[in-house]
Amino acid sequence: MKSNASLFRALLALSLLTGCSSYRPTPAAFHEVLDQPYRLGAGDRVRVTVFEQDGLTNTYSVDQSGYLSFPLVGSVPARGHTAQQLEKEIADKLRQGYLRDPDVSVEIDRYRPIFVMGEVGAAGQYSYVPGLTVQKAVAIAGGFTPRANQGSVDITRDINGKVMTGRVLTSDPLLPGDTIYVRERLF
User: Fold this and answer.
1) CB-based burial of residue 52 (10 Å sphere; 0-12 exposed, 13-18 middle, 19+ buried)?
2) Mean of the per-residue pLDDT values for the chain?
3) Please, are residues 42 and 113 in contact by the beta-carbon 8 Å criterion?
4) How far is residue 76's CA from residue 21's CA, in Å, rounded to a whole number?
5) How far is CA 170 from each of CA 8, 132, 139, 143, 152, rounded to the nearest angstrom?
6) Among the residues of the chain, which ranges form H helices?
7) Is pLDDT of 11 > 80?
């Protein structure tokens, strides 16, 4: 009788632990993307300099469809491109009847924002700065609430057009466009 009660308690504890755990390991692509060059997306703003062409040098935003509207040449695809690829794309379009040998430079002026939700003081949209970690983003968002799980958070990230969610430590770096969700702790 006593062994049946012990067995029942053990099975109950095991079922509670497996039922509470919705943990999915972080996809490998989550950390691999950190070592790759930054790819532009909707909401990024870039500074395009065309040397000796002051009328073309300006700051341009990547629109929702992933294009940059550039004078003379029209829409230039930017989503998924690095700054160097965008330089080449703009120079190639300018070479087609507008400038003989354009010298184009592209630098990122403003990154797309990050979003912080869940158990934080002030959930919302915040500006991304290079070197931002989960812990720093939570601090910007007013810190953890008393009910927050402070060990790890869920991040939703767009990687090569595929949206992925993974659980990471608070010391992990962020990328522009990330959505951070701070879960409530169980106990």
Assistant:
1) exposed
2) 88
3) no
4) 45
5) 37, 11, 11, 12, 6
6) 2-20, 28-32, 83-95, 134-140
7) no
Residue 19, class by beta-carbon neighbours within 10 Å (0-12 exposed, 13-18 middle, 19+ buried)? Answer: exposed
CA-nearest of 65, 88, 87 to 75 is 65
Q: What is the pLDDT of residues 119-155, one digit of tens each?
A: 999 999 999 999 999 999 999 999 999 999 998 999 9
pLDDT for 1: 53
* Neighbouring residues of 180: CB distance < 8 A, sequence distance ≥ 6: 114, 115, 116, 117, 118, 134, 137, 138, 153, 154, 155, 174
The b-or-e profile of 107-139 (16+ CB within 10 A means b, else e) is: ebebbbebbbebbbeebeebebeeebebbebbe
Distance CA 8, CA 21 (A): 20
- Both tokens assigned to 76: 């230039």
Distance (Å, rounded) from C-alpha 135 to C-alpha 126? Answer: 14
Per DSSP, the residues of 22-60 read ---PPPHHHHHGGGSPP---TT-EEEEEETT-TTT-EEE
pTM (two decimals): 0.79
